[in-house]
Amino acid sequence: MSKTIKRIGVLTSGGDSPGMNAAIRSVVRTCAYHNIECVGIYRGYQGMIEGDFKEMGPRSVNNIVNKGGTILKSARSKDFMTPEGRQKAFSNIQKAGIDSLVVIGGDGSFTGAEVFNSEFNIPIMGIPGTIDNDIYGTSFTLGYDTALNTVVEVIDKIRDTASSHNRLFFVEVMGRDAGHIALNAGIGAGAEEILIPEEDLGLERLLDSLKKSKASGKSSSIVVIAEGDKIGKNVFELKDYVEANLPEYDVRVSVLGHMQRGGAPTCFDRVLASRLGVKAVESLIEGKSNFMVGILGDKITLTPIDQAIKGHSEIDRELLKVADIMST
Amino acid sequence: MSKTIKRIGVLTSGGDSPGMNAAIRSVVRTCAYHNIECVGIYRGYQGMIEGDFKEMGPRSVNNIVNKGGTILKSARSKDFMTPEGRQKAFSNIQKAGIDSLVVIGGDGSFTGAEVFNSEFNIPIMGIPGTIDNDIYGTSFTLGYDTALNTVVEVIDKIRDTASSHNRLFFVEVMGRDAGHIALNAGIGAGAEEILIPEEDLGLERLLDSLKKSKASGKSSSIVVIAEGDKIGKNVFELKDYVEANLPEYDVRVSVLGHMQRGGAPTCFDRVLASRLGVKAVESLIEGKSNFMVGILGDKITLTPIDQAIKGHSEIDRELLKVADIMST
Amino acid sequence: MSKTIKRIGVLTSGGDSPGMNAAIRSVVRTCAYHNIECVGIYRGYQGMIEGDFKEMGPRSVNNIVNKGGTILKSARSKDFMTPEGRQKAFSNIQKAGIDSLVVIGGDGSFTGAEVFNSEFNIPIMGIPGTIDNDIYGTSFTLGYDTALNTVVEVIDKIRDTASSHNRLFFVEVMGRDAGHIALNAGIGAGAEEILIPEEDLGLERLLDSLKKSKASGKSSSIVVIAEGDKIGKNVFELKDYVEANLPEYDVRVSVLGHMQRGGAPTCFDRVLASRLGVKAVESLIEGKSNFMVGILGDKITLTPIDQAIKGHSEIDRELLKVADIMST
Amino acid sequence: MSKTIKRIGVLTSGGDSPGMNAAIRSVVRTCAYHNIECVGIYRGYQGMIEGDFKEMGPRSVNNIVNKGGTILKSARSKDFMTPEGRQKAFSNIQKAGIDSLVVIGGDGSFTGAEVFNSEFNIPIMGIPGTIDNDIYGTSFTLGYDTALNTVVEVIDKIRDTASSHNRLFFVEVMGRDAGHIALNAGIGAGAEEILIPEEDLGLERLLDSLKKSKASGKSSSIVVIAEGDKIGKNVFELKDYVEANLPEYDVRVSVLGHMQRGGAPTCFDRVLASRLGVKAVESLIEGKSNFMVGILGDKITLTPIDQAIKGHSEIDRELLKVADIMST
Prior knowledge:
The structure is a homotetramer. By secondary structure, chain A is α/β, with parallel strands linked by helices. Chain A has eleven helices and eleven strands. In chain A, helix 4 (107-120) links the parallel strand 4 (100-105) and strand 5. The model of chain A has no long low-confidence stretch (mean pLDDT 95). Chains A, B, C, D: Pathway: Carbohydrate degradation; glycolysis; D-glyceraldehyde 3-phosphate and glycerone phosphate from D-glucose: step 3/4. Chains A, B, C, D: It is an enzyme of class 2 (transferase). Chains A, B, C, D: ADP binds at residues 25-29, 159, 190-192, 218-220. Chains A, B, C, D: It is found in: Cytoplasm. Chains A, B, C, D: Mg(2+) binds at residue 107.
């Protein structure tokens, strides 16, 4: 039988994403609601190794539900990849009386948590926090919806210039090896073409599509490109290639970069973070461990964390067709 | 066997909502993609009665994916409630060669479509467009996600003042008889209490909650109130009641009003609109009629339109608990 | 000769406005830059009476340049209107070693500062912080530019609905007895008519203007109304009056309220706050007292604080003409 | 004596900027107000050469006051640099009955207008439209205030990530040879260091400043860099240089690019555009020519267009000091 949970540690790890603060707030307040203590661990696993902890009560998380970034800070920890590092981390949390962990981050962070659990048998629960939406077992990761809105708002601005000057813009967005941001923000922003890692249509198809777009009377075009796309050229080489082959096009490049990771979370991300935090804490209380909380359909669910790590988050093929039709 | 669809009419009806333009664009472009003609009908059913039509091709809907409101305009039509009105509408669309209809609107608009179909046997398909999210058969209506973000952004601003002055704010939001906006935006905005039509907790509970909030060390509070709540007092009477009973509170009221219906749609609403438009047109092509397209889980679905009209969109009770825990 | 300044107290008083935090940050960092100590006084004059102080260094004001509200909180203090209250306040700041004050607020706050200076001979400097822009001696008060943008963004959303439904909206904005917000935001939002306290055109002119607007082919209209306007009817009575006299109009009312006071300050307000804070502290160091810092033209200036209090901030009559032409 | 103006042509030229549409609207409606005809010329001087004109009345410019870009489109025209091109342009406008021109653009566009006036004696009036604020004779160009807000909003987001990860970000902003955007947005966004073309402090000073920043306890830093800065390295080389010399820093680069040119204009830009349009048209009516309208202090002014072209827009040195103090 599982031991009673008395004191939960919470940390954020990996790249930050909007909604992490809302998730921290939810974990802290759910602990308070159930009369469990809560300890914030700074800078992810590195702070665990350095013993950088802080007691947290419901008032510690006032006015953060709408803040981007993470008040607990985040870091990538090389030390935690060594047995010595993890041993030190475990000693620190033992000393601090922490008996279970909620880890907010991506699959790298979950892998760390799983290893830590296997070595020291401390209950862990994962909350998926990354803008890339590349995690199996949840339809939405924290920060993804916010990033989509950041991207479409920026492309809306770029389109003002594109259509004033009859230009073609290549806009590179984040997503690591996943095309979720590119595909959804591309549809949302009305892109004429979308290049994603999951679907290499080749350079010929891009040229064809741009020719067709011009012929159909469109005066300006936006092509959204995922950073991990497989077309074999980076976005600047692509510009040169298109200008060489389609001299009627005046191409500009915009690499959106880190702004996509920040900003006040959308309502969706705030509500999702609140729900996931409640589920994570209550699942630990119920004696569960080694799960990732997530949302599938409209329901908050648990996925074994090793499945979340190994599984692959697929793009929705229906959206490829929608994107194609929308660029008519 | 169903006749072949050649010429689709599209209209928006009832209160406008962000995403309606993206849905119009999707209907128009899906028609073009499948070599079907498309006719825009202005001002909903009233424009049908007055023969206010416009031929639409893929270039007619350039640069509207990100615009609030509806380029086809909307109206409520009393004439369409009479058999004479509907007969006139039918004559007009017959003359215009329109052989099927996509109706973007709420349940009132769907009722009109259903009656029209029953009388004249013209295939119809509904797309749920309303910020209230009060339609059975879809987890999200067009405009709802945008409205939630509008509301939380405004409450974020109000909270700046609330916490600078240690005040209590009552914020009234839209939603007709449904508490979806209030409940979700309330959680998203970190409201201390949320009053919705589906759950009348009574005035005592409100006072208790505010007392507890003060005692817990919170220096400011936001109470979100759905316009259709059942607490028996309007928001201004509620202010007076709370000030009379809890003199330690300095209460302000803000009625958000119509701004909630406007604004550029979020990425979510734009993608949803694009998907629903494709499904609506392709379903007509497949010979289907009398359905509402919607999203359930992550899938685009069809719900018989009479079920969509009669069914009741329930709030998620899990969210009530989450709201309660978050206000700890 | 003036004594050397060693320790400055800073407070915010009256209604909060965006940019107050940026001004606090500027005062604190300018003190640090000149090796002067700085003390934050909470809740305005009331905190002075209660001795609610906090030592502030450059790191105390990290990450607040973009936050609405005021981290020092604000309040209206009845006690400070009594000689006993002010005596107590003076004792507290003497005990705390505070030898001069920067007061961020409106004319009421400046009046308090002036009285305090006259009684206890402590050097004071005022920074104009209010969204109303109703202070003599500065072309812009802190928060005014932000409030204008908040208002036009909201009216942009309302216009989506107005033009989708061919409706008339009355939008009431803040400004106390001044029409600055209404006049500028009205022009910015493309209002058909603007009602301000400084110019009572009468009800007949409003009706005429609305008739002309309809006749000119406008399908929707926005009328912006300052809260202090002198037309003799509140905004709801105005709606009834117009509907009674112009039945072709379907009128809606939106009272924007407190959201206008909050939100992240615009770049203009952040830069202005930074400049005013530097000038306030450096003026105290130079031995000056009893001035309000402000901006006239492009220059940061000093205005004797009694002039700032007694003087009247006029609207720019050129803008009335521009508003009139723009509604053609 | 000057001829009576009967028919004004209006065009936008050069890079687009937010507020151009509001200026077009103002020109069109001021013409209508004074019973003068107005013709829109598409794609700047190129459209003049190609005779791409459109009659404009007050309803042609409905609902554009809040739109970025330019409905008249913009282009750079090589043909207009030849006498033959300009002769053709003149023939076209003569045929169209256009007797005077309002040119909205930057100094390149004004140079074209001045040459055209000297050759064909057609009255011209310039309105400064560029985000760079690099035009002599006006404190603000159209679009500059909007661009500043776009930049600070993006840097606010980047700072979320910077402070969550204790990182240093180099953010490159627009401005051609002028540091206005970098300097003002840098102060507004709380940048630790700002590199502008007008002030080359050298690489040593940058390193010193970053060392000091670290020593002072700042956990993250933003350096804003104008695209035309003179430090001798591009932003990516600068990153390498700093990482080589200050290994304690983990540097990221963000080049904001074209998004800075788009978006809905701020209230300030909308009001300024409205005022400048009125002044431009009324000055032509009064028989004036060869001026640029602008704003100096709070007043709308006229500057001889050759001075506007040759003059140099200086940065405000006071702001350099403010920036320095703010980074304490």
